[in-house]
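Dear support,

I submitted the protein below through the web form. The confirmation email said the job was done, but the results page showed an empty box. After a refresh the structure appeared. I'm attaching both so you can tell me whether what I see now is the final result or a partial one.
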Amino acid sequence: MAAAVVSFTVVKTPSPSLPRSRSHPITSSCRCLCTAVATVPPNAAVVRPRRQRRWRRGRVNSWSGSIEIGVTALDPSVLDFPSSATGLKGGSWVVSGCSVLRDGRSVLEEYGQDLDQLGEGDRVGVERTAAGELRLWVNGRDCGVAATGLPARVWAVVDLYGKCTQVTVLPPEPGFSSPTPTPTPPLEPSAPPEDSALGTSRDEAFMVSPAQARPETFPNSLESHNDFASMELSEVVSNAILSAYNGGLLNVNLSSPPAGEGPGSSGAATSPILTSNDALLFHEKCGTLIKLSNNNKTAERRRPLDEFNNGVVMTNRPLRDNEMFEIRIDKLVDKWSGSIEIGVTTHNPNNLEYPATMTNLQSGTIMMSGCGILTNGKGTRREYCEFSLDELQEGDHIGLTRKSNSALHFFINGIDQGVATPLTPPVVYGVVDLYGMAVKVTIVHNNNHSDRLRRNNAILRALSPEGALRRAAPAAQAEPERLLFHPNCGQKAAITHEGRTALRPHATDDFNHGVVLSSRALRDGEVFQVRIDKMVDKWAGSIEIGVTTHNPAYLQLPSTMTNLRSGTWMMTGNGVMHNGTTILDEYGHNLDRLKAGDTVGVVRREDGTLHFFVNGMTQGPAAWNVPPGVYAVVDLYGQAAQATIVDDVEVTPVPEPLPEGNNQVSPSSPSSGVGGSDLRFHQLHGSNAVITNGGRTALRHNCRSEFNDAIVISNRALRDGELFEIVIQKMVDRWSGSIEAGVTAIRPEDLEFPNTMTDIDYDTWMLSGTAIMQDGNTMRNNYGCDLDALGTGARIGMMRTSKGDLHYFINGQDQGAACSGLPPEVYAVVDLYGQCVQVSITNATGPMDNSLATSNTATEKSFPLHSPVAGVAHRFHSICGKNVTLEEDGTRAVRAAGYAHGLVFSTKELKTEEVFEVKVEELDEKWAGSLRIGLTTLAPGEMGPGAGGGPGVPPSLPELRTKTTWMVSSCEVRRDGLLQRMNYGRNLERLGVGSRVGIRRGADDSMHILVDGEDMGPAATGIAKNVWAVLDLYGPVRSVSIVSSTRLEEPEGTQPPSPSSDTGSEGDEDDEDEEHGLGGEDQVAIMPTALEFLENHGKNILLSNGNRTATRVASYNQGIVVISQPLVPQLLVQVRIDFLNRQWTSSLVLGVITCPPERLNFPASACALKRAAWLLRGHGVFHNGLKICEKFGPNLDTCPEGTILGLRLDSSGGLHLHVNGRDQGVAVPDVPQPCHALVDLYGQCEQVTIVSPEPGAASLKSTGTQGDMEKADMVDGIKESVCWGPPSAASPLKSCEYHALCSRFQELLLLPEDYFMPQPKRSLCYCESCRKMRGDEAHRRRGEPPREYALPFGWCRFNLRVNPHLEAGTLTKKWHMAYHGSNVAAIRRVLDRGELGAGTASILSCRPLKGEPRGGFEEPGENCAPPREEQPPPVLLSPSLQYAGAETLASKVQFRDPKFQRTHQAQVAFQVCVRPGSYTPGPPSAILREPPDPHFSPAELEWVTKEKGATLLYALLVRVE
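What the results page shows now:
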């Protein structure tokens, strides 16, 4: 083909003040699609652009997007033009923005210069080279190869889209030749065009040139204007421009300007004008609650807080083929479940009787509801797409279109969700159901698919004009301004201190809307760091930090940044989220555990990796391929109330990439994509697989409920000698089997992805476990590696050699040829099966050395050594196994004889994050087995008299059970000899001479094993604080030497914060009556290690949180779970009720089973267990389904959320029930052992969590600490606040509704907080549910001599604070307890006085009491009566609140509950301590409507005292009816 270049220049953009044309309104964006005539002529050439004549009305950013240019193999003379160039199929390549699309699908992101940033006068062209490559030219500069494999015959295509309204083909310049393709940096839009070199070429090009930066929004319309000029390409182009709009949404005049005149000449010839007044609107006939506005483009449901349905609206006309019907959600309410539904119907709105909801219509209707498709009211596709309409937010867009092939497609924010149904009737109306949360929507006429696709693919590139300048600016630039917070911040946030500090002023009232962004974009390598200044204890969750591509000046800030679904990376808790989706579950330090004074930071490196910092310590790479020019963002969420930007704070340097030429990488570092291979995962994959991170990461969706259907394949065939390497990033313990990997000759487009890789029955070679398979059949067993034994962090590589052999590489080591005879073109294929959940392509992917030699030396270079570090070398303890000899000053251990008795210990306890590492020096191959390594709480010095070779040291590590010991043997994890986990990390049996093995106790109380410097991930959790490293030189490992050192103490403030909570259990008061404590009962020990539920459970159970949380996900039964560890005498096992579903009756069942639970086939409910089962259900105790005891303890069916239930075996085998820390007594005597605790999540109970107190807790009084709280739950995509306060041991449950109601009334009294005890001892509820939960008796005895009083059943008690000098604890023991009825008006006066009756002192003042003389206070003389005016009035008291709280003594007051606006009656009374001998008992003097308390003698029901100082205020009591 002869060479040519055709060039266009942009000469006009829309005017900001075009006169409105009433006769020809524009209802979609101004787009013009045109093609060059036939193929480009051989003598065409680039010419100089003519200077643009300024349009007389200027220009304005009225549109989003700009010119699109490319080539197509379609003949324009017979082409049915789509609405945009991105809609061209059948061999079309289009450059849009900075993306390259082939047949409408993005094939290359961030290519060349952003066309959206070009301005008037710029030149843009496309070239097809002789090699079939597509190249883009901007202002005479080559942007590089955009696509390859172009056919020989293509037409240039231009889309006059958005801001670009006119282009001109440049006349040819003599002797043009396209320069040698040399990619150059894109020019700034304002840069003057440069002339190109001249010459001749066989290549062919086509050039045009476009507009300016994209504005934030589209205008509603573009009216006609007679000054529009046109270019003249051919008659075909003019016809194409007309046909592109199917009857005319474009309302402009096109003509060729006369010679010598610029665009806009008044002499332009006029083309036919296209008009359309038939725009899509809502039909006037609609649901009964619908109100239409905005010319019937907006629909709103009236009374949204009272009604949730009758909100159906339909379009005013049927939809045309390929016509987009798109709406924007304008308003939602957070009251109902469910939300908007959208679809099509064949019913004419004029004849339709509108139903309450469209899903009730059982004919001619197709609706998308949630994430499924309903046809005629019945579900036909449950999981249509990943998006759920119920999770969309205000501002999100939903669209649909009926294709010309009858297929119905839905679009969420412009993203095509695929075919919803292949057969749609030819005449359908659009229909929207404003149901539930959805209140208001508006039809969007001017947003189209190509713009939405561009915005999603480019991740909402910065909308301001400086966005492009930021990307195009050279590296050497002026020092940017100081980092500050942008003044545009969240609704509940404020910026102070000249932009340095952000805060939530009302942090105790609101938990979200605290988003703040940096005032400018971050430079590469620039650390943005903030210090937490203030926190509140009211909420769950805390600060979140990250980056976003959104410009804060244009961003409508969400309530929380994790709700933003584009261009955002956030660290939240100890996970990382991208666009609202979790991409890393366990990353770094948990931000929810930070305290005031801690710092958090974020940095984007030049290679596009994102790193977070906590207290200056890097947490490692969190994301890859983050675009440049991102803004830092901080979300002051939950507990975080104030943060300040910190300048010049030293942080640990982010590790640099490995040197060039070293192909190995850290196992947790996927490819950054800079200078690496172009190998990615293909966009086609199994139904449960998800491709993220720019095609470098693959994960299996719903990994705990799905184990297969997750095959992924490379995007292209492997070259000879090219390594395709992946790293395992996440695994689950739920399934058997793991990753499978291999190659296939089947193209991704031709592969019908089966359930598992072994089901591919042709042209496929793979490794499954240790078996090499071809076409699903095993060729050989016992290959050099076992994929099922690999753990998190392991790397797997595949390579086809030039000889056709397939080699596997494990952690960089060649495992040898697996098979031979492979065809020349094979694709890498991976099956994320079973335990393997997530993998990423590493930097090592790419060409390798032909020798394939990989030695241990190379492996060592691949991983930087963790040790030795600065400090004193580690040593082995002198106490060791009898066959061990210590050499070289205790740094070398040798097993002198046999295969056992080889235990060695570290001399000191391991510090947090300290690595104890040894190197294997000698092997004895005659023995089997492996080195064993672990941690033990047993100090070597406690081995007893036999230590140092005697019986005190056991022969092997599994027999070390004197104290808790965790160990790894082969690839098994054990605790006290019991198997906890299989297939962990690398198999220690494969260690060779020179291999290094280390152990580390993490800051999160986890145990990590390191092999050759590579962290195998957490092997066990719940590790005690004080542990020693222990090794067992067992089997083939004969000698080891220490290569690590003790870590030097770091200066305070540089160490990472401890994740453990500092919140200890507050010591109980000396007595606060026995109602609070456990009386004289023996203290109960707590299970010292982390418990978890067994993997074998009911079919409706889903385990999470490290198998410590069990959730029933369906129905009301099939919810049995068993704790994996057997019950140990005197050790308490506890679970907390997390969630109740009130639609069911009954609730959880608790008990024990003595049969092995691992292979037990659980019935639908625990009551059906007929063998070796003891259960507590309701009030009863059951054995093998038969009730053996009635009315035992509280009714478990009435336990509210938050209740902590426990089981304990006493020394005689009796089974005890504990409720909120209180022992309810023996439920079942003589329970056989071993036995396992069982929980049946039945009826109302839908979720429970194992409660594990902090190590060292002596009693149950510290349960329910803040550390047990989870991150604020995600409900329908929106975070909920959790009001948390640590409960006291016997405090009522925080979910008690009566207690909450009484507390709200007490707050209405506006009493000073200083009068009351602080949390958690502030209040105690005596409603029927709470008192039964504690097992309170109705009466108690108090004082000297003891006297009986009744507990305040039916009331809520608010404890008063007493000055410590009054020795209130002593008084409450020696004095009697009584009650005094009062009224609301007298409460403040009594509290101010500090006692009942007359007086002036306050309860907070230090005034000696008469009954308890203090130093310096003289008792009044016998005959010294006080003055008459100080004689106090008599005070009426009673040991029974039933009498003191009678309406005649405690008047009722009416109030309105501020939360639910209901009217209630309330009474108040005081609980007081009374000095013995200061009162006179007698019969009741008040007139009672009900008989007095029969428990007390009528002659002693009323106590009267006149003595001053005879009473001490103890508590305020409230009762609400």
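Response: this is the final, complete result; the empty box was a page-load delay. The first strand starts at residue 4 and ends at 12.
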